[in-house]
């Protein structure tokens, strides 16, 4: 068939395997994309791994983090119309690139008869089997470059989570210590002619004399807990914790929606588009929010049924994109130009529900730290373990994980 000939010509650089009998079989695989994940699964361990639901939970946890809370500010820098449209476009491009990455990994595993590959292996073997000589010569460099940027970005996310976690708990603790809980009127009153109690006013928070501790002390407090968290090396064992974190973040987002949908003010005051000079600020914040591409292959490689991962990817990223666009748009419509770097900073500090938002979301970010940390740990630790005796590998891994967490501890920025 002409279509088969064209397809074979395009795939020639990745099919340099000796043996004519295998070539016909590979041709049939090319014509049926559904076979690629199945045979890819057979090269790995199909008896252990995470389920479809667990992969979806981890995928949501790996994508929905602190970047979500900054998206209303991103929309302010792009405009009411341009901002949401660009978020949708960026989300579609991001999902498309994730699918390309997974498909390339499947294809290389099939052609080279190798076990499931990671991000850097996929890039390196793609370059090695390229039709361009310059790419083939640079395959080793490409592997190291991808690993470097993966470690840099993922540890950067972890560092941002570290500061966010400490900052939010600091606000909650000092807000609690700096207020007295009182009732608006009398605590309880009874009618003169009956014992039916009147309506009891809700408790409010009245400011008293505040005090503050250095943010670095809060970060030091969380440091040992984060180290213990990353000692959980198996994503399957983290599924329950990740599910609980997703529930907490969902509750906090619902509370935020309940607040921002009460009043939108004068919508005509908001610009449909912002000056072009502000668009880079929108782009930077939005790119930070779409932070999950680094965890795609690690999740797919640990699934019992990798052939179902594309469906999990579509569902998870679809939920993520809708949540991003809706929260970013409604948050900006409600607060307008007064929107801050994190929408939680715009919530009133004298309501318990708003304090609960910070606590619940902080727990979700706490678990997200381990999901994002999984990628640099898988890149940096195995090469070191390979040089050690078997008895030293487990203690060395624990030490390296602790040191990497300590590396994410940094001087918090001055946000005043």
Automatic annotation (TrEMBL):
Its main location: membrane. InterPro entries: AA_transpt_TM. It is found in: Membrane. One of its GO terms (molecular function) is L-alanine transmembrane transporter activity. The chain crosses the membrane at residues 81-104, 145-164, 215-232, 239-260, 280-299, 311-335, 359-381. It is a multi-pass membrane protein. Residues 49-382 form the Amino acid transporter transmembrane domain. Keywords: Membrane, Transmembrane, Transmembrane helix. GO terms for cellular component: vacuolar membrane. This is Amino acid transporter transmembrane domain-containing protein. It comes from Coregonus suidteri. The lineage of its organism: Eukaryota, Metazoa, Chordata, Craniata, Vertebrata.
């Amino acid at each position: 068939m002409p279509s088969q000939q064209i397809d074979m010509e395009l795939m020639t650089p990745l099919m340099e395997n000796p043996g004519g009998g295998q070539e016909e079989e590979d041709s049939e695989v090319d014509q049926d994309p559904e076979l690629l994940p199945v045979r890819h699964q057979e090269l790995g361990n199909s008896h252990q791994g995470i389920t479809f639901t667990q992969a979806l939970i981890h995928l949501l946890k790996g994508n929905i983090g602190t970047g979500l809370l900054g998206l209303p500010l991103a929309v302010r820098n792009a405009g009411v119309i341009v901002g949401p449209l660009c978020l949708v476009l960026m989300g579609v491009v991001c999902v498309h690139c994730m699918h390309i990455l997974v498909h390339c990994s499947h294809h290389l595993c099939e052609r080279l008869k190798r076990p499931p590959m990671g991000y850097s292996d996929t890039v390196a073997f793609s370059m090695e089997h390229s039709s361009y000589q310059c790419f083939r010569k640079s395959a080793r460099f490409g592997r190291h470059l991808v690993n470097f940027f993966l470690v840099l970005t993922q540890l950067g996310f972890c560092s941002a989570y570290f500061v966010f976690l400490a900052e939010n708990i600091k606000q909650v603790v000092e807000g609690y210590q700096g207020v007295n809980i009182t009732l608006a009127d009398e605590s309880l009153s009874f009618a003169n002619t009956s014992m039916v109690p009147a309506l009891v006013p809700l408790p409010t928070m009245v400011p008293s004399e505040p005090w503050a501790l250095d943010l670095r002390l809060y970060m030091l407090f969380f440091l040992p807990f984060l180290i213990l968290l990353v000692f959980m090396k198996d994503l399957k064992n983290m599924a329950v914790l990740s599910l609980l974190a997703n529930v907490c973040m969902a509750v906090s987002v619902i509370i935020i929606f309940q607040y921002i949908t009460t009043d939108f003010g004068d919508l005509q005051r908001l610009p449909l588009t912002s000056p072009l000079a502000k668009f880079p600020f929108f782009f930077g914040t939005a790119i930070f929010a779409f932070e999950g591409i680094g965890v795609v292959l690690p999740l797919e490689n640990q699934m019992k049924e990798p052939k179902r991962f594309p469906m999990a990817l579509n569902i998870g990223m679809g939920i993520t994109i809708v949540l991003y666009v809706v929260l970013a748009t409604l948050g900006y419509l409600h607060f307008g130009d007064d929107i801050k770097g994190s929408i939680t900073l715009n919530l009133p500090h004298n309501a318990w529900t708003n304090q609960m938002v910070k606590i619940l979301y902080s727990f979700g970010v706490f678990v997200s730290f381990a999901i994002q940390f999984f990628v640099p740990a898988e890149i940096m630790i195995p090469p070191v373990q390979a040089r050690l005796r078997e008895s030293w590998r487990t203690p060395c891994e624990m030490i390296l994980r602790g040191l990497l967490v300590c590396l994410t501890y940094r001087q918090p920025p001055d946000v005043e």
